[in-house]
Amino acid sequence: DLERPSVRINVRLHRNVAQFRAGAAARGIALSPSHTPIQPVPVGDSAAALAAAQELEDTGFYVPAIRPPSVPANGARLRVSLSAAHAEADIEHLLDALAAALRTKSH
């Protein structure tokens, strides 16, 4: 049955998106509306988005900052890309690092 592996992957991907969104809410991380594997994290200021992206990279996560002109002025955000290959623990570690990076940029 060729369809079964792809169905399992799709279910896992949707579960990962739900886990990320629930974990972000529990940590007070604001997210833009999205039920896709691309999860935008609004930051606002371009410099703050770049600093958060660098802090995440320093801890082993590639979460690029998206800045004007790709988004409106003061609309900078971080772009989290989830996949079915991410384990629950990976997502929890990312959420912890993301919360820390966003706390750092707000001080």
Q: Would you report the number of β strands?
A: 3
Overall form? globular
Order of helices and strands: HEHEEH
- Which strand-content bin applies to the residues? 5-15%
Q: Please identify the structural class as seen in this structure.
A: alpha+beta
Q: Determine the number of helices (DSSP H or I, runs of at least 4 residues).
A: 3
Quote the average pLDDT.
94
State the helical fraction: 40-55%
Q: Looking across the biggest beta sheet, what order are the strands in? A: 1-3-2
Beginning-to-end CA distance, first to last residue: 54 Å
Outline the biggest β-sheet: 3 strands, antiparallel
How large is the radius of gyration?
15 Å
Unreliable runs, pLDDT <50, ≥5 residues? none
In short:
The protein is 51% helix and 14% strand. The chain is built from 3 helices and 3 strands; from the N terminus they run αβαββα. The termini are far apart.
Looking at this protein, list some descriptive labels.
alpha+beta; three-stranded antiparallel β-sheet; 3 strands; 51% helix; 14% strand; globular
3D structure, described in words:
This protein starts with a helix and ends with a helix. Helices cover 51% and strands 14% of the residues. Helix 1 (3-26) runs parallel beside helix 3 and helix 2 packs across helix 3 (88-105). It is globular, with a radius of gyration of 15 Å. With 107 residues, it is an alpha+beta fold. Strands 1-3-2 form a 3-stranded antiparallel sheet.
